[in-house]
Each structure stands twice: as structure tokens, then as C-alpha cells.
Inverse folding.
């Protein structure tokens, strides 16, 4: 113990004695460890503990899939849920949830609250409890029971001023009175980030038999000892049984069992894992850099090691002393890296708008906690050993006789210089892989930002609203509401035009429907035709400016009493009517739906966010006239007149809603620019971070090359003097030194290119509009790296070329 | 071999002053020297008398502060760095006290090195290197590294490197300084043989035994030539 304290004290003294080396090494390590700490903070928040409930690890999600109709992972029909709940032997508890738009009235202003309808077992399944009141009872999911809600802590504070007496009182939501029975803790917002209110799912008898409407998110908790694979196996058996029993609805359907956390974090996971790989590379480069510095310092301390050995120190003792020094260095680097990470994590946390951030599970956990601190400490210790071990072993191998005889002047053997060269090659190779990866991600982001969404995105304002079913029970009421809003909105100064659609392009909302084509045989069960479905009024198409390809648009004449019509997207026409004219063809929805005639074909728009449809063709879409399908939930879209700003229309467009119904709230008020920004947030953040890490890697590699070549020049001063005495010109010396560096660089570039070809293949799922073997990136990045590395060699080479040939004599 | 009457090297009142921390050190204080083609001259004198400075000026490693230096009839005191390097490469052969072989290059590559700076063809280089190594008796060690040779062998390789380019003059700086007496004698014998073969040699030495190998001995003191004497060949 005493000797360890001695090593620590001596190590600290050595770090102070070489402030230059210490500062450079600490900076390199701070960048490497800081980058890792930053990404681990994100992973910790978003992947490891996105939910603050205790049973998350044993909870799974159950999805339906129907691959032959293009459904890879979809919601569950109520009847299927009930059957699974009754017949399974692997789940301890099962629950459902679904989004619930709660229009909260009764205060100064109506407010749209993000809510969820859940089974009473929802909270017990997850293991969470209320901070006031209680969770739901089984009786409260029965038809006819008193409507009840549980509030989030945030809503309780914001809307009710933390009034303790709110429990037991009723509040008006969607034109009904709901009794408040509990308050959830602040940390709980499941099943969707930003959820502030929960009510019970009340299934009527008809609902329980419904196998055609797929809208339930099913959560289950595995019985103790049951694995996810066992559960998946049993779900396979049940799916087969259901397909036999109900072939019309269940043929071709199967169940997918996913871990809850894994399922809910699927979005950010590939980006974070990619960034984790990137920062791993940065840390390795930093380690190679510091190892090189320590090798150089080890060479300078050869005599000290020889003296220690002569005094009886064992090799292990010397290795231990040097490792203590490197671990001290790593801890300093780790401390500095932690400070950098605090700043970087704060910057990431505010990099997306708060209202979007709260939709992302775990985003609120984006800070440095004890896990991150422990990670940083662990990485620092490991790093200290990784970069310190080889230099320590090298230094401890000093030739006692030689070192003492040479008075510590000589730098060490060939093995040390080969090792330094190998480290530089590794740095260049790793940097190249990282730079190529960053190049592809940045290029992908640029392609994404410039991609044609299929409509004019300029000056568009959107806001969503849901008309309460009780108040707007009749279709005619809903039609009148939107017609009145349309008139009001178009009268607003600065509004060029306005319209409504069920879900605006690039939003996270989607509806789809199975259909048949009149005159064609019905597809076999399990292979039904599926398309996105939108409902819009005629004005919407003028607002959004989707080009007409064929036939006509939806028009005012397509009233409720007129024959049902639809327009379809070009992709729909191509997929389902290849080589045919779709105009005049008729679609059939449901068992007894009236035939709907296709009257026009319009251009494709990217309805799904780019992130969910990366690199794929736009999905087929059917548009129905609002007058013939008057839905409750719609999005209002208004385009500002040229020269006007869409954000200035927020208040007047909202007023146009309240002028029709003062109790009708709107929500998700966003300009199209904001929607696109939110849509591309994962790419934007990851490309900025990736590029940042790649630049750090480039900086470290450049410093590494410069240090090694500079040191080599210093060591070879005498040799260079001899060469000059023998008649070498300055250009010969430049060629010699630069050539030495270029050999290392080109070896690194070749290895890096091989690595990049392998690694970038793993990135295909997150790239848009750029190939994983993009020629420009694979040629441009090595050229850039080689140029910068060449300059790193050229500067010491210039110094070498100025060596006075007299040193050939002075060395005597 | 007798020397020709035209001086190969002519120094006219050459002075060299070093400035260190505002202190002037006069390493050479007006040196006059002629060395004729085919001559073997030794330069002797006590430590600090300016021997090495004189040799570095003769070898164009350094330039005089004042005075004129003519090599083969051409003024070389005010040449550019590149021109001086070219002359060092083509017209001067150096033999250093500590051999100054490059450790990473083989014997063959060390001897070949000055020829590569000359842009000579590979076949010509091969011929010249072979001849030079034969001349010093080291052809059989061509593929060895310097670290695999004895001190005497290393100095023979250094001599081969100096003569491979067929320079006008060989400049030797204490060529036996790092050798034992047996190897020292052997190297001196080698230089004598080269001289007998027609080489012009200027050798700095502080050892009177080896100075006697030369035709003429020049004694330096305080940066001046204080004595010149013709010698009987050893």
C-alpha cells in the first residue's frame, strides 16, 4: 500500500514535471472520454432507463403482423387481445392502451391534453403507483361505469394548482364529466411521452368481438421464469389457432413479442448505437495518441528505468509505476471529459423544441447521473490501462547496459519505432472509417433536407383538432363545423388559402384501410390490399399544391349525397393498376361499403416522416372527400400569403376555430417548417454529432502523425545532417521525411478504406439518398485525410530540411 | 604519386567568427592554404585551434565569415545552399570520426546513398558501389547492417562511401579517433593506398603518428596556420 502511494505521488510529480505532455494527453483523453460520456448519457436516458417504472424489464409488447399485406408491426384488434389474455399461459398480466385526445374545458380556455385510454391493470402491470388517490378498479372498465381519470403531476399543477381536493371531483372532458381518482408521479408519462391524463378503456360487447379494427397497444408482464422466446413460441401457436378459427380476419396474421424497452426505443436505437461506435473509435484514437506520447516519453526515460532496474526494481514494479502514471493521466482526462460531457449533454437536451422533446420517452432523463459518472470512471480506468500498458511494458524492457552507457541519449529500439508507426497507422485507419461514416451521414442529411416532399412546404401553418363525439354526433354537424371554419380562416388577412385533412404530410399520424378492387377476385385471407387513407376537403389540395396527374381533384360537387369518389396517389396507381388507367375503377371498403370511384390521380407526397420511410418509395394513398367521410379528428392547414409569416397566423386561425365553437381546443400547432425540423431531428442531431466526432478524430490523428514525425525528425537530426553532408538537397530530405509519413498514412488509408467498406454497410438503415459505398465520399474523404496528414508530415519535414549539415561533425 | 602544380583548394585569408551570447569567437583568423590535386595533407593542432572549422569550410558544410575559397579554380564561398550541397555530393568525399553510417541502411545502401542524390542510374550505382567496396575489402559484407560490423569495418565502409562518387578530394575528420590502434593503422593504410591511387586527401588529426602518413603537415594554432612541413611518406 505504501509503495502504491509512492507510485501515485511520484506519478503526480512526473505529470507536473512534463506539463506539455500532460496537457496534450489530458486534452486528447478529455475529447475521447467526453465524447463517450456524452453518448452514454444519451443511451442511459433513452435506451437504458427511458421509463421510471420497476417492471419494465419483465414487460413485453405484443404486436400483430401481416407481412403479405405489408404490415410488419401493427396494433392489435380487441377480440385478438381478449382471446390471447384468456388462453395464454405465459403472461402474468395483460393490459391495453390507446391514444386518447382529451379536450379539457371548464377553465379560462379549452385545452387539448395528450391522454391515454388504458386497462385498469395498466398501472399494476408496470408496477407504478399514484402519489395521490388510487389507480383504476376492474369495475371501471365495464360499460355504464362512472367515467374516471388519473391526472399527471404536471397537469395537476398547471391546471389545478396542486389542489388536494381535486380527488373525487369531476372535470369536463370531451363534453362528459370525468371523476378524478388519482395523480401520477411527475416521472410517469407512459405510454406516450407527454401523456398527462389517463382514463379507462371501456369495451362494449361489440368491441370485444371486433377482429377488424386494429388500434390497441398491448403490454404484458411475463410470468416469473418465462422467457420472451417461450412467450413468442406460445403466441405462434395461438396465432395459428386463431387463423383456423377466424380465417377471414386472422389468416396470415401472427404475433410479435418484443421487450417493452426495446420496442419503445426502436427509433433512437440505431442512431445511438452508431454514435456509440463512433465515440468508441474516437476513444481508441485518443488512446493510440496518448500511447504514442508515452512511448516517446518512455524513450526519454530509458535511463531512469535502467537506474531503477539497476537498483533492484523488478519489471512488474516498473510496469506498475508507469501504469499508475497513465491511470492518473486517464483520471485527469476523465474529469475534464466529464466537464465537456456536462456541457455537451446540456446542448443536446435543448437541441430540439421542448414540446417535441417531451414526446420522446426518457428525454427528460438527459443529464449526468451516478450511472454516467460510474461509466466515466470505469472508462477512464480502462483507458489508462489500455494506453499505458504497452508503453509501460516497452519501457520496462530497457537494455540496462546500453541505456546506462548511452547516458539515456538514445531513443530506444526498432520495436518502439515500429510500434509508434503501427499506432499512427491505426489512428489514420480509425479516423478514416469515422470520417467516411460521418461523410455518409452528413450527405444523407443534406439529401433528406433537399428531398422533394411532393408538395409546397412554404408558409404552411397546421393545427389539429378533435371534435367531441357527444357534441358532434351527426356527420352534418361536423361538416358544418369545418365549412364555417373554412370561411372564417380564408377571411383572415394574410391567409392565402386554407383546408382540412385527416393527417398532414410528414406528421407522425397515419390511417390505413384494407380495400378491394371491383371486378377483381377478393385476395385470399392474409393477403388483403392495404393503402394509406386520408380524408380531405377540396380546398386542401389547392393549399398544399399536390400536382394533378390524371382525371380530376376532389371537388365541391363531391357532397355527401353524391356518388362516393376518391383520388389516389401515383404510387397507388402504379402498385395496384400497373399498365391500366385507374380513373373510373372502383374501390370497395369493408363488407358492405358502396363502391368508390377513382376520379383522379395526384402526385405522391411523403406522408410518413422520412425517418420511418427511409429510402423507400412513398406509400400508396387514397384520398376521400371530407363531405363523404366526415371524421372527428382533422388537421387544419392554412398557407400564409406571399410575404407573410405562417407563425403570425397562429392566433387568428385559432380564433377562427373558437369563433365556431368557443370550447373547441386545437393542438399540435406547428408550421410545416417546424414539422420538417422535428421530422429530421434524429438525422440532424446525429449528423452534427457524427461530424463533430469525426473532426475530433481527424484532429487527434493529425496531432498523432505530427508528433511521431516531429519526434522522428528530432531523433534523426544527426542522420539528416550526415545525409546533407553527403550532398542531399533540401528536397531529398523533404522527400525522405514526408515519404516516411506517407507510408504510414497510405497504409492507414488502405486499412481504413477496407474497414469503412465493412462498417458502412451497417449504416444502410439510417441513410437516405446516398449509397453505403458512395464514390464521392470514398474518394473525397481519403483525399482530405491524406492532404491534412501530409501537412502534418510536411511541417516537421521542412524543419528537417533546414538541419545544418554541421551536426554531422558536431555529433563527434 | 606527385602532386600537380595547380591548387585544387585555395583559401585566401579565410576568417570564421562565431557569435554566441554577444561573445565573438574567432575560430579562423586569416587562413591561407593551398592543396594541390593528388596531395595528402594532414592538419594538426591542439583542441580548439580551428581544425574542425577549417575542415567544415573545406567541405562546404560551413561558409567563411570573410575571405575567399576556391575549389578546383571556382569560387565557392558565396554559393547557395543547393549549390553547396551539389558540390559536396559530387566533388567532396567525407570520412567522419564516428563513421556516421546510417543504421537502418545496409552496407551497400550506405555506400550507394551519395550516388542516389546525384540521380545516377541504378546500374552505374551498382558498378560504383561494387568497386568501392572491393577497394576497401568489404564487398562480402554488402548486405549487413552497420550494427553487425566492427568499428574498423564500419570505417572502411565509410571510406568506400566517400570514394564511391569519385570526388575531387577526400576530407577525413579524425578517421581513427574511434578506433583501436590496430584498426587505426588499417584505416590509415587504406587512405595511403587511396592516395597512391591518385586521391587527394585532407585529414584532420591530433595524433602525430597518423599525421606522418601525409605528404605535408599543416599546424594550426588559434585559427592560423603556424607551421607547414613536407613529410616523408610513412
Amino acid at each position: 500500500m505504501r509503495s502504491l502511494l509512492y507510485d501515485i505521488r511520484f506519478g503526480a510529480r512526473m505529470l507536473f514535471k512534463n506539463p506539455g505532455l500532460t496537457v496534450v494527453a489530458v486534452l486528447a483523453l478529455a475529447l475521447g472520454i467526453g465524447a463517450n460520456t456524452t453518448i452514454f448519457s444519451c443511451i442511459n436516458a433513452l435506451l437504458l432507463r427511458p421509463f421510471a417504472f420497476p417492471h419494465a424489464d419483465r414487460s413485453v409488447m405484443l404486436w400483430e403482423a401481416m407481412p403479405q399485406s405489408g404490415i410488419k408491426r401493427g396494433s392489435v384488434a380487441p377480440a385478438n387481445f381478449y382471446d390471447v389474455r384468456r388462453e395464454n399461459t405465459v403472461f402474468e398480466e395483460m393490459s391495453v392502451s390507446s391514444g386518447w385526445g382529451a379536450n379539457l374545458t371548464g377553465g379560462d380556455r379549452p385545452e387539448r391534453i395528450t391522454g391515454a385510454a388504458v386497462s385498469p391493470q395498466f398501472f399494476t402491470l408496470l408496477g407504478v403507483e399514484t402519489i395521490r388517490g388510487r389507480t383504476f378498479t376492474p369495475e371501471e372498465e365495464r360499460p355504464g361505469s362512472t367515467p374516471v381519470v388519473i391526472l399527471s403531476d404536471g397537469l395537476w399543477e398547471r391546471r389545478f394548482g396542486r389542489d388536494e381536493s381535486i380527488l373525487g371531483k369531476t372535470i369536463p372532458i370531451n363534453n362528459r364529466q370525468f371523476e378524478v381518482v388519482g395523480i401520477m408521479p411527475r416521472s410517469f408519462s407512459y405510454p406516450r411521452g407527454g401523456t398527462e391524463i389517463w382514463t379507462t378503456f371501456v369495451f362494449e360487447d361489440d368491441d370485444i368481438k371486433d377482429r377488424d379494427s386494429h388500434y390497441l397497444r398491448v403490454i404484458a408482464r411475463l410470468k416469473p421464469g418465462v422467457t420472451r422466446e417461450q412467450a413468442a413460441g406460445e403466441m405462434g401457436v395461438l396465432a395459428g389457432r386463431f387463423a383456423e378459427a377466424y380465417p377471414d380476419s386472422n389468416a396470415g396474421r401472427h404475433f410479435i413479442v418484443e421487450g417493452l424497452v426495446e420496442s419503445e426505443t426502436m427509433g433512437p436505437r440505431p442512431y445511438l448505437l452508431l454514435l456509440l461506435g463512433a465515440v468508441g473509435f474516437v476513444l481508441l484514437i485518443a488512446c493510440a495518441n496518448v500511447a504514442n506520447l508515452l512511448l516517446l516519453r518512455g524513450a526519454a526515460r530509458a535511463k531512469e528505468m535502467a537506474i531503477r532496474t539497476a537498483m533492484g526494481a523488478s519489471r512488474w514494479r516498473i510496469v506498475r509505476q508507469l501504469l499508475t502514471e497513465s491511470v492518473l493521466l486517464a483520471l485527469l482526462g476523465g474529469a475534464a471529459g466529464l466537464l465537456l460531457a456536462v456541457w455537451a449533454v446540456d446542448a443536446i437536451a435543448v437541441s430540439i423544441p421542448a414540446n417535441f422533446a417531451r414526446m420522446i420517452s426518457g428525454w427528460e432523463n438527459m443529464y449526468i447521473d451516478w450511472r454516467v459518472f460510474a461509466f466515466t470512471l470505469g472508462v477512464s480506468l480502462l483507458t489508462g490501462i489500455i494506453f499505458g500498458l504497452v508503453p509501460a511494458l516497452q519501457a520496462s524492457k530497457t537494455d540496462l547496459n546500453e541505456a546506462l552507457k548511452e547516458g539515456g541519449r538514445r531513443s530506444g529500439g526498432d520495436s518502439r519505432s515500429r510500434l509508434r508507426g503501427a499506432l499512427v497507422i491505426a489512428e489514420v485507419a480509425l479516423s478514416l472509417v469515422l470520417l467516411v461514416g460521418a461523410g455518409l451521414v452528413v450527405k444523407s442529411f443534406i439529401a433528406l433536407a433537399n428531398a422533394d416532399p411532393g408538395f409546397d412546404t412554404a408558409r404552411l401553418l397546421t393545427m389539429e383538432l378533435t371534435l367531441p363525439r357527444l357534441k358532434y354526433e351527426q356527420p352534418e354537424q361536423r361538416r358544418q363545423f369545418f365549412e364555417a371554419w373554412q370561411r372564417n380562416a380564408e377571411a383572415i388577412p394574410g391567409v392565402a388559402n386554407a383546408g382540412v385533412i385527416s393527417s398532414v404530410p410528414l406528421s407522425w399520424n397515419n390511417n390505413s384501410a384494407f380495400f378491394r378492387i371491383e371486378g377483381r377476385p377478393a385476395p385470399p385471407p392474409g393477403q388483403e390490399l392495404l393503402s394509406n387513407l386520408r380524408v380531405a376537403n377540396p380546398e386542401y389540395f389547392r393549399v398544399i399544391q399536390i400536382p394533378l396527374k390524371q382525371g380530376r381533384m376532389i371537388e365541391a360537387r363531391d357532397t355527401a349525397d353524391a356518388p362516393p369518389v376518391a383520388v389516389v396517389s401515383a404510387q397507388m396507381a402504379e402498385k395496384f393498376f400497373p399498365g391500366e388507367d385507374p380513373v373510373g375503377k372502383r374501390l370497395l371498403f369493408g363488407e358492405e361499403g358502396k363502391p368508390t370511384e377513382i376520379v383522379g390521380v395526384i402526385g405522391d407526397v411523403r406522408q410518413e416522416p422520412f425517418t420511418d420511410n427511409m429510402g423507400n418509395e412513398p406509400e400508396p394513398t387514397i384520398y376521400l372527400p371530407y363531405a363523404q367521410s366526415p371524421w372527428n379528428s382533422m388537421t387544419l392547414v392554412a398557407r400564409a400569403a406571399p410575404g407573410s409569416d405562417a407563425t403570425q397566423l397562429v392566433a387568428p386561425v385559432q380564433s377562427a376555430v373558437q369563433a365556431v365553437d368557443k370550447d373547441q381546443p386545437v393542438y399540435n400547432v406547428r408550421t410545416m417548417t417546424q414539422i420538417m425540423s422535428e421530422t429530421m431531428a434524429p438525422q440532424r442531431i446525429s449528423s452534427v454529432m457524427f461530424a463533430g466526432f469525426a473532426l475530433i478524430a481527424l484532429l487527434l490523428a493529425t496531432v498523432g502523425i505530427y508528433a511521431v514525425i516531429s519526434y522522428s525528425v528530432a531523433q534523426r537530426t544527426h542522420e539528416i545532417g550526415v545525409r546533407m553532408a553527403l550532398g542531399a538537397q533540401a528536397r531529398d530530405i523533404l522527400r525522405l521525411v514526408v515519404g516516411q509519413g506517407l507510408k504510414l498514412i497510405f497504409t492507414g488509408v488502405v486499412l481504413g478504406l477496407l474497414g469503412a467498406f465493412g462498417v458502412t454497410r451497417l449504416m444502410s438503415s439510417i441513410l437516405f439518398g446516398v449509397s453505403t459505398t458512395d464514390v464521392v465520399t470514398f474518394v473525397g474523404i481519403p483525399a482530405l485525410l491524406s492532404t491534412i496528414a501530409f501537412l502534418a508530415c510536411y511541417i516537421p519535414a521542412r524543419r528537417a530540411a533546414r538541419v545544418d549539415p554541421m551536426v554531422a561533425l558536431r555529433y563527434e | 604519386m606527385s602532386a600537380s602544380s595547380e591548387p585544387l583548394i585555395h583559401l585566401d585569408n579565410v576568417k570564421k567568427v562565431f557569435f554566441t551570447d554577444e561573445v565573438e569567437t574567432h575560430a579562423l583568423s586569416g587562413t591561407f592554404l593551398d592543396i594541390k590535386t593528388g596531395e595528402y595533407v594532414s592538419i594538426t593542432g591542439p583542441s580548439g585551434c580551428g581544425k574542425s572549422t577549417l575542415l567544415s569550410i573545406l567541405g562546404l558544410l560551413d561558409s567563411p565569415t570573410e575571405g575567399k575559397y576556391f575549389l578546383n579554380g571556382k569560387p565557392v564561398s558565396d554559393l547557395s545552399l543547393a549549390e553547396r550541397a551539389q558540390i559536396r555530393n559530387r566533388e567532396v568525399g567525407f570520412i567522419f570520426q564516428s563513421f556516421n553510417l546510417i543504421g537502418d541502411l545496409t552496407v551497400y545502401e550506405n555506400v550507394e546513398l551519395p550516388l542516389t542524390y546525384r540521380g545516377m542510374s541504378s546500374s552505374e550505382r551498382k558498378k560504383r558501389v561494387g568497386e568501392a567496396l572491393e577497394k576497401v575489402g568489404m564487398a562480402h559484407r554488402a548486405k549487413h547492417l552497420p550494427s553487425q560490423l566492427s568499428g574498423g569495418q564500419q570505417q572502411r565502409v565509410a571510406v568506400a562511401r566517400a570514394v564511391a562518387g569519385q570526388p575531387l578530394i577526400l576530407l577525413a575528420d579524425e578517421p581513427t579517433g574511434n578506433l583501436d590502434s590496430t584498426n587505426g593503422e588499417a584505416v590509415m593504410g587504406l587512405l595511403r593506398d587511396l592516395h597512391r591511387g591518385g586521391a587527394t586527401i585532407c585529414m584532420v588529426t591530433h595524433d602525430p603518428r597518423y599525421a606522418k602518413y601525409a605528404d605535408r603537415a599543416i599546424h594550426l594554432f588559434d585559427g592560423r596556420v603556424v607551421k607547414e612541413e613536407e613529410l616523408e611518406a610513412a
